[in-house]
Amino acid sequence: MKTLLSSFAVVLVLSVDLQSYTWAADFNDLQSHRAVYEVSLESSEDRSGIVSAKGRIVFMIEGNACEGISTNYRFVTRLGTQRDSYVTDQQTASHESSNGKELSFNTKSFVNEQADQNLSGSATREGGGLTVKLTGKNARELQLEDAVFSSTHMIKVLKAAQADERFLSVDIFDGIGDADEVINTSAIIGEAKEIDGALEGENPEALESFKGRKAWPVTISYFKKDIGNSAETLPFYEASYLLYEDGVVRDLLMRFEDYALKANLSDIEMIDAKSCT
Protein backbone atom coordinates (compact mmCIF):
# COMPACT_ATOMS: atom_id res chain seq x y z
CA MET A 1 0.00 0.00 0.00
CA LYS A 2 1.43 3.37 -1.01
CA THR A 3 0.41 6.40 1.01
CA LEU A 4 1.22 10.05 0.34
CA LEU A 5 2.32 11.78 3.53
CA SER A 6 2.67 15.46 4.33
CA SER A 7 5.90 16.65 5.95
CA PHE A 8 4.14 16.84 9.32
CA ALA A 9 2.83 13.27 8.94
CA VAL A 10 6.31 12.03 8.08
CA VAL A 11 7.57 13.41 11.36
CA LEU A 12 4.82 11.50 13.19
CA VAL A 13 5.69 8.22 11.44
CA LEU A 14 9.38 8.58 12.22
CA SER A 15 8.54 9.28 15.85
CA VAL A 16 6.79 5.95 16.54
CA ASP A 17 8.77 3.09 18.06
CA LEU A 18 10.29 0.52 15.71
CA GLN A 19 8.07 -2.38 16.89
CA SER A 20 4.91 -0.37 16.18
CA TYR A 21 6.08 0.51 12.68
CA THR A 22 6.97 -3.11 11.92
CA TRP A 23 3.59 -4.48 12.93
CA ALA A 24 1.79 -1.79 10.96
CA ALA A 25 3.65 -2.80 7.80
CA ASP A 26 2.94 -6.49 8.36
CA PHE A 27 -0.80 -5.95 8.80
CA ASN A 28 -0.92 -4.90 5.15
CA ASP A 29 -0.21 -8.55 4.30
CA LEU A 30 -3.66 -9.62 5.54
CA GLN A 31 -6.37 -9.49 2.88
CA SER A 32 -9.64 -7.98 4.04
CA HIS A 33 -12.36 -10.49 3.21
CA ARG A 34 -15.61 -12.15 4.22
CA ALA A 35 -15.70 -15.95 4.12
CA VAL A 36 -18.53 -18.44 4.70
CA TYR A 37 -17.89 -22.06 5.70
CA GLU A 38 -20.40 -24.92 5.86
CA VAL A 39 -19.83 -27.09 8.92
CA SER A 40 -20.39 -30.83 9.29
CA LEU A 41 -19.42 -33.60 11.69
CA GLU A 42 -16.08 -35.19 10.77
CA SER A 43 -15.84 -37.70 13.61
CA SER A 44 -16.95 -38.29 17.20
CA GLU A 45 -16.21 -40.64 20.08
CA ASP A 46 -18.97 -42.46 21.93
CA ARG A 47 -18.36 -40.46 25.09
CA SER A 48 -19.19 -37.21 23.29
CA GLY A 49 -22.77 -38.35 22.67
CA ILE A 50 -22.74 -36.39 19.40
CA VAL A 51 -24.16 -38.21 16.39
CA SER A 52 -24.67 -35.30 13.98
CA ALA A 53 -23.62 -31.71 13.42
CA LYS A 54 -24.50 -29.10 10.84
CA GLY A 55 -23.78 -25.41 10.87
CA ARG A 56 -22.15 -22.36 9.36
CA ILE A 57 -19.25 -20.05 10.11
CA VAL A 58 -19.20 -16.47 8.83
CA PHE A 59 -15.81 -14.81 9.26
CA MET A 60 -14.89 -11.24 8.32
CA ILE A 61 -11.55 -9.48 8.66
CA GLU A 62 -11.01 -5.88 7.66
CA GLY A 63 -8.47 -3.15 8.32
CA ASN A 64 -5.13 -1.68 7.38
CA ALA A 65 -1.70 -0.87 8.75
CA CYS A 66 -2.80 2.49 10.15
CA GLU A 67 -6.05 1.62 11.89
CA GLY A 68 -5.37 -2.00 12.88
CA ILE A 69 -7.37 -5.13 12.17
CA SER A 70 -11.02 -5.82 13.03
CA THR A 71 -12.48 -9.31 12.95
CA ASN A 72 -16.07 -10.50 13.25
CA TYR A 73 -16.88 -14.17 13.64
CA ARG A 74 -20.15 -16.01 13.99
CA PHE A 75 -20.41 -19.78 14.39
CA VAL A 76 -23.86 -21.37 14.51
CA THR A 77 -24.22 -25.14 14.67
CA ARG A 78 -26.87 -27.72 15.49
CA LEU A 79 -25.47 -30.66 17.41
CA GLY A 80 -27.52 -33.84 17.60
CA THR A 81 -27.37 -36.57 20.22
CA GLN A 82 -29.28 -39.85 20.39
CA ARG A 83 -31.92 -38.18 22.54
CA ASP A 84 -32.02 -34.54 21.54
CA SER A 85 -30.42 -31.71 19.61
CA TYR A 86 -29.39 -28.20 20.48
CA VAL A 87 -28.20 -25.09 18.66
CA THR A 88 -25.13 -23.15 19.74
CA ASP A 89 -24.43 -19.63 18.51
CA GLN A 90 -21.12 -17.90 19.20
CA GLN A 91 -20.53 -14.30 18.11
CA THR A 92 -17.16 -12.62 18.53
CA ALA A 93 -15.94 -9.17 17.52
CA SER A 94 -12.46 -7.83 18.16
CA HIS A 95 -10.07 -5.09 17.10
CA GLU A 96 -6.28 -5.21 17.34
CA SER A 97 -4.33 -1.98 17.13
CA SER A 98 -1.78 -1.52 14.35
CA ASN A 99 1.15 -1.83 16.77
CA GLY A 100 -0.13 -5.14 18.15
CA LYS A 101 -0.29 -3.78 21.69
CA GLU A 102 -4.01 -3.24 22.27
CA LEU A 103 -7.01 -5.54 21.82
CA SER A 104 -10.70 -4.86 22.40
CA PHE A 105 -13.12 -7.78 22.31
CA ASN A 106 -16.73 -8.81 22.81
CA THR A 107 -18.02 -12.39 22.85
CA LYS A 108 -21.63 -13.50 23.03
CA SER A 109 -22.83 -17.09 23.08
CA PHE A 110 -26.28 -18.66 23.07
CA VAL A 111 -27.62 -22.18 23.51
CA ASN A 112 -31.07 -22.76 21.99
CA GLU A 113 -31.41 -18.95 21.74
CA GLN A 114 -30.87 -18.56 25.48
CA ALA A 115 -27.97 -16.30 26.51
CA ASP A 116 -25.03 -18.31 27.81
CA GLN A 117 -22.25 -15.70 27.94
CA ASN A 118 -21.69 -12.01 27.24
CA LEU A 119 -18.12 -10.88 27.83
CA SER A 120 -16.47 -7.60 26.84
CA GLY A 121 -13.13 -6.10 27.63
CA SER A 122 -9.73 -4.94 26.50
CA ALA A 123 -6.13 -6.07 26.82
CA THR A 124 -2.93 -4.03 26.68
CA ARG A 125 0.63 -5.28 26.27
CA GLU A 126 2.97 -3.28 28.46
CA GLY A 127 5.95 -3.84 30.70
CA GLY A 128 6.46 -7.43 29.58
CA GLY A 129 2.92 -8.50 30.48
CA LEU A 130 -0.79 -8.11 29.74
CA THR A 131 -3.32 -5.95 31.54
CA VAL A 132 -6.81 -7.28 30.88
CA LYS A 133 -9.84 -5.20 31.83
CA LEU A 134 -13.24 -6.89 31.73
CA THR A 135 -16.38 -4.75 31.74
CA GLY A 136 -20.05 -5.26 32.59
CA LYS A 137 -21.23 -7.56 35.37
CA ASN A 138 -17.92 -9.47 35.17
CA ALA A 139 -15.88 -6.28 35.60
CA ARG A 140 -12.39 -6.88 36.95
CA GLU A 141 -8.75 -6.28 36.09
CA LEU A 142 -6.24 -9.08 35.50
CA GLN A 143 -2.47 -9.14 35.18
CA LEU A 144 -1.29 -11.91 32.85
CA GLU A 145 2.00 -12.92 31.32
CA ASP A 146 2.92 -11.46 27.96
CA ALA A 147 1.30 -12.83 24.79
CA VAL A 148 0.46 -11.67 21.29
CA PHE A 149 -3.05 -11.19 19.92
CA SER A 150 -4.73 -13.13 17.10
CA SER A 151 -3.88 -10.97 14.08
CA THR A 152 -0.26 -10.69 15.16
CA HIS A 153 -0.21 -14.47 15.64
CA MET A 154 -1.44 -14.94 12.07
CA ILE A 155 1.35 -12.67 10.82
CA LYS A 156 3.91 -14.69 12.77
CA VAL A 157 2.64 -17.96 11.25
CA LEU A 158 2.76 -16.44 7.74
CA LYS A 159 6.30 -15.13 8.24
CA ALA A 160 7.43 -18.53 9.51
CA ALA A 161 5.85 -20.27 6.50
CA GLN A 162 7.48 -17.85 4.06
CA ALA A 163 10.84 -18.49 5.73
CA ASP A 164 10.39 -22.27 5.32
CA GLU A 165 10.19 -22.77 9.07
CA ARG A 166 8.27 -25.90 10.03
CA PHE A 167 7.50 -25.25 13.70
CA LEU A 168 6.45 -22.19 15.66
CA SER A 169 5.48 -21.86 19.33
CA VAL A 170 3.71 -18.67 20.44
CA ASP A 171 1.73 -17.63 23.51
CA ILE A 172 -1.52 -15.87 22.58
CA PHE A 173 -4.42 -14.05 24.19
CA ASP A 174 -7.65 -13.74 22.17
CA GLY A 175 -10.36 -12.83 24.68
CA ILE A 176 -12.20 -16.11 24.10
CA GLY A 177 -13.70 -18.15 26.95
CA ASP A 178 -13.48 -16.33 30.26
CA ALA A 179 -10.69 -14.10 28.91
CA ASP A 180 -8.59 -14.84 31.98
CA GLU A 181 -5.63 -16.82 30.66
CA VAL A 182 -2.83 -16.95 28.14
CA ILE A 183 -2.77 -19.98 25.83
CA ASN A 184 0.29 -21.64 24.33
CA THR A 185 0.10 -22.56 20.65
CA SER A 186 2.30 -24.84 18.58
CA ALA A 187 2.11 -24.59 14.80
CA ILE A 188 3.33 -27.27 12.40
CA ILE A 189 3.73 -25.89 8.88
CA GLY A 190 3.95 -28.09 5.81
CA GLU A 191 5.42 -27.36 2.41
CA ALA A 192 3.45 -24.96 0.24
CA LYS A 193 1.44 -26.54 -2.56
CA GLU A 194 -1.01 -25.53 -5.25
CA ILE A 195 -4.49 -27.00 -4.91
CA ASP A 196 -6.20 -27.77 -8.23
CA GLY A 197 -9.98 -27.46 -8.22
CA ALA A 198 -12.46 -27.78 -5.40
CA LEU A 199 -11.85 -29.98 -2.41
CA GLU A 200 -14.57 -32.30 -1.14
CA GLY A 201 -17.49 -30.28 0.21
CA GLU A 202 -16.35 -26.96 -1.28
CA ASN A 203 -18.35 -24.75 -3.61
CA PRO A 204 -16.38 -24.56 -6.90
CA GLU A 205 -17.87 -21.17 -7.72
CA ALA A 206 -16.17 -19.65 -4.66
CA LEU A 207 -12.65 -20.69 -5.65
CA GLU A 208 -11.70 -18.32 -8.48
CA SER A 209 -9.40 -16.30 -6.22
CA PHE A 210 -7.30 -19.38 -5.40
CA LYS A 211 -6.35 -20.43 -8.94
CA GLY A 212 -2.60 -20.60 -9.51
CA ARG A 213 -1.80 -19.84 -5.87
CA LYS A 214 -0.02 -22.00 -3.32
CA ALA A 215 -1.03 -22.59 0.28
CA TRP A 216 0.68 -24.04 3.33
CA PRO A 217 -0.96 -26.89 5.26
CA VAL A 218 -0.95 -25.71 8.88
CA THR A 219 -1.93 -27.43 12.12
CA ILE A 220 -2.10 -25.35 15.28
CA SER A 221 -2.46 -27.01 18.68
CA TYR A 222 -3.69 -25.08 21.72
CA PHE A 223 -2.42 -25.95 25.21
CA LYS A 224 -3.28 -24.84 28.72
CA LYS A 225 -0.24 -23.27 30.35
CA ASP A 226 -1.09 -23.67 34.04
CA ILE A 227 -1.30 -27.44 34.47
CA GLY A 228 1.26 -27.71 37.28
CA ASN A 229 3.29 -30.90 37.30
CA SER A 230 0.68 -32.88 35.44
CA ALA A 231 1.93 -35.20 32.73
CA GLU A 232 -0.98 -34.06 30.54
CA THR A 233 0.49 -32.78 27.29
CA LEU A 234 -2.43 -33.16 24.92
CA PRO A 235 -3.93 -30.02 23.36
CA PHE A 236 -7.46 -29.07 24.32
CA TYR A 237 -8.09 -27.94 20.73
CA GLU A 238 -6.49 -28.25 17.30
CA ALA A 239 -7.17 -26.53 14.00
CA SER A 240 -5.83 -27.71 10.63
CA TYR A 241 -6.26 -25.73 7.42
CA LEU A 242 -4.73 -24.49 4.19
CA LEU A 243 -3.23 -21.03 4.68
CA TYR A 244 -2.65 -18.61 1.79
CA GLU A 245 -0.06 -15.85 1.87
CA ASP A 246 -2.74 -13.18 2.39
CA GLY A 247 -4.18 -14.90 5.48
CA VAL A 248 -7.18 -16.52 3.76
CA VAL A 249 -8.04 -20.00 5.04
CA ARG A 250 -9.82 -22.98 3.46
CA ASP A 251 -10.27 -26.70 4.22
CA LEU A 252 -10.64 -26.14 7.97
CA LEU A 253 -10.75 -29.07 10.41
CA MET A 254 -11.49 -28.33 14.09
CA ARG A 255 -10.62 -31.05 16.60
CA PHE A 256 -12.13 -30.82 20.05
CA GLU A 257 -11.56 -33.23 22.95
CA ASP A 258 -13.90 -35.98 21.73
CA TYR A 259 -15.25 -34.86 18.37
CA ALA A 260 -14.15 -33.03 15.21
CA LEU A 261 -15.92 -30.64 12.85
CA LYS A 262 -15.10 -29.94 9.19
CA ALA A 263 -15.65 -26.47 7.69
CA ASN A 264 -15.74 -26.24 3.88
CA LEU A 265 -15.54 -22.92 2.08
CA SER A 266 -18.82 -22.06 0.36
CA ASP A 267 -18.43 -18.35 -0.37
CA ILE A 268 -15.72 -15.69 -0.19
CA GLU A 269 -15.71 -11.98 -0.95
CA MET A 270 -12.48 -9.99 -1.14
CA ILE A 271 -12.80 -6.50 0.33
CA ASP A 272 -10.74 -3.54 -0.89
CA ALA A 273 -8.42 -2.33 1.86
CA LYS A 274 -9.17 1.11 3.26
CA SER A 275 -6.52 3.70 2.50
CA CYS A 276 -4.56 5.19 5.36
CA THR A 277 -5.49 8.80 6.07
Tell me about this structure.
The longest helix has 13 residues, at 150-162. This protein has helices spanning 7-15, 18-27, 150-162; strands spanning 33-44, 50-64, 68-81, 85-96, 102-111, 114-126, 129-134, 140-145, 167-172, 183-189, 193-194, 214-224, 237-244, 249-255, 259-270. The chain has three helices and 15 strands. The protein has a 15-stranded antiparallel sheet that branches. The two termini are 12 Å apart. It is mainly beta and 277 residues long. Strand 7 and strand 8 (140-145) form a beta hairpin. 27% of the residues are buried.
Strand-pairing-aware structural class: mainly beta
Cα(first) to Cα(last) distance is 12 Å
Gross geometry: globular
Number of strands: 15
Largest sheet: 15 strands, antiparallel
The sequence of SSEs as H and E is: HHEEEEEEEEHEEEEEEE
Strand content: over 45%
Low-confidence stretches: 1-25
Radius of gyration: 20 Å
Mean pLDDT, as a whole number?
A: 86
Helix content: 10-25%
Number of helices: 3
Any key phrases for this structure?
disordered N terminus; 3 helices; 15 strands; mainly beta; 15-stranded antiparallel sheet; 277 residues
Offer a quick outline of the entry.
This protein is mainly beta.
Task: Summarize the SSE layout with pairings.
Elements lengths: L6 H9 L2 H10 L5 E12 L5 E15 L3 E14 L3 E12 L5 E10 L2 E13 L2 E6 L5 E6 L4 H13 L4 E6 L10 E7 L3 E2 L19 E11 L12 E8 L4 E7 L3 E12 L7
Antiparallel strand pairs: 1-2, 1-15, 2-3, 3-4, 4-5, 5-6, 6-7, 7-8, 9-10, 10-12, 11-12, 12-13, 13-14, 14-15
